[in-house]
Design brief:
- This protein is of the alpha/beta class and about 325 residues long.
- The protein has 8 helices and 16 strands.
- The strands form 4 sheets. The chain has a 6-stranded mixed beta sheet with strand order 1-2-6-3-7-15, sandwiched between helices. A 4-stranded antiparallel beta sheet has the order 10-11-9-12. A 3-stranded antiparallel beta sheet has the order 4-5-16.
- The longest helix has 21 residues.
- The two termini are about 30 Å apart.
């Protein structure tokens, strides 16, 4: 493996919205005698790239962007640290390394698809599905500890605005605090009876973009926030119905949608497990089958200690090659 290439990839800041620079570098850097390169404008200033070896039946796919902040690479003691090390520049590197090895054997019928805007909303995946054909199988690269993903939780996002009645905080009986109503709302969510799923476990949620701009001596007239659910096969529809039922004269709820929980193709001989994180996979519905596997741990992704081990990259390359041989031989 050409670790100098990996260092180069990690040295480019491609936090979401800035990934065009990385795409332009890779457009030239990953060109080989055996592949053709296509670029596709996403529509927001970013690019998708497709490297094809022959007429692709199998697509390796991962994303170009990373979460902020940018962290420069550090190579030490068999471990590579830095932003994107495992989410998902490690996947770009290991997938391309596998493609190079397949090219050396004279095999074709595969491709490497690199997508923009995965972290903020799978914008590249949506654009690719809108504008381009799919294929027989896409293997999505995410940090799964080199295990196949058998199933993944879905997502559902809602914007919520809760209204109160402002007044002097010395006389709270003359108003209604939107913050107090928010606390009541959260207790209702915490105690909601979403069923446990035998495969994906319990439904979870997170609150983000919480905002109430009242002074400390004035009751809050309004609070708004985003609530983001990780849904299961058992709870996806129940979450939508539950949130619809929380609307009232002082609570406005906008359903931003999301992705359904889904099953994935797995390969014999490679361990498999379920995951709770999202990916581009649900948006790539113009492929007959979808799989997910990649080096690195989701538990270091999005952290200051993001990392991947070199031997995990090597394992990923071997696994990707084995998958390609199995899929392409099955198609002959």
């Amino acid at each position: 493996m050409d670790l100098a290439l990996f260092r180069e990839i990690l040295s480019i800041d491609s936090t979401s919205g800035k990934e065009r620079e990385l795409a332009l570098v890779l457009e030239k850097r990953l060109k080989t005698p055996g592949n053709t390169v296509q670029r596709f404008e996403v529509g927001d200033g970013t690019l998708n790239l497709l490297f094809s070896w022959g007429d692709p039946k199998l697509y390796f796919c991962t994303h170009l962007d990373t979460v902020p902040p940018y962290i420069p690479p550090l190579f030490e003691d068999g471990i590579i640290r830095g932003r994107g090390a495992c989410d998902a520049k490690g996947q770009i590197f290991s997938m391309f390394s596998a493609c190079l090895e397949l090219e050396k054997t004279g095999l074709d019928g595969f491709a490497l698809l690199l997508l923009s805007g995965e972290e903020p909303g799978s914008f590249g995946a949506k654009a690719y599905t809108r504008d381009c054909p799919g294929g027989d199988l896409v293997i999505v690269g995410e940090p799964t500890d080199n295990s196949m993903v058998s199933a993944a939780k879905g997502t559902r996002s809602f914007q919520v605005k809760i209204k109160g009645k402002s007044c002097h905080s010395g006389y709270p009986e003359r108003g209604v605090s939107a913050v107090r109503r928010f606390v009541d709302f959260m207790m209702t969510v915490e105690t909601a009876d979403f069923p446990d799923d035998p495969e994906l476990g319990r439904t979870t949620f997170n609150i983000g973009k919480l905002h109430s701009d009242n002074p400390q001596n004035v009751l809050s007239p309004e609070i708004d926030f985003r609530i983001y659910f990780r849904t299961t096969f058992a709870s996806a529809e129940k979450v939508k119905a539950f949130m619809k039922g929380q609307q009232n004269e002082y609570t406005e709820i906008e359903d931003f949608g999301g992705d359904n929980p889904m099953h994935f193709k797995t390969f014999e001989g490679i361990p498999s497990r379920t995951v709770a994180f999202g990916s581009d996979a649900p948006r790539l519905h113009n492929f007959k089958e979808r799989a997910m596997c990649g080096p690195g741990s989701i538990f270091t992704a999005h952290t200051d200690n993001e990392q991947v081990m070199i031997n995990d990259l090597e394992t990923a390359v071997r696994q990707y090659i084995a998958m390609a041989h199995q899929v392409l031989s099955d198609n002959r």
